[in-house]
Amino acid sequence: xxxxxxxxxxxxxxxxxxxxxxxxxxxxxxxxxxxxxxxxxxxxxxxxxxxxxxxxxxxxxxxxxxxxxxxxxxxxxxxxxxxxxx
Length: 86
Fold this sequence. Notes:
The chain is elongated. It contains two helices and two strands. Helices cover about 45% and strands about 15% of the residues. It is α+β, with helices and mostly antiparallel strands. The protein has one domain (about 15-80). Strands 1-2 form a two-stranded antiparallel sheet.
């Protein structure tokens, strides 16, 4: 907002994160990524790279547990969200 007026100024950004207090799912907070269609491919690449970085920091049982959690999350998403071709 401009300090000299009461006009609201809107600026588009490629991506952002909404922190949602989500008591319905039994979680304290959920992070919701909001991404423009033009930035979706870059976002997906960044997310995949972050997952690989986390896996590289883990060893043994911790890494196995992390990979099991990822697989479980993937299965849950596949049940809830229909696959869409972009």
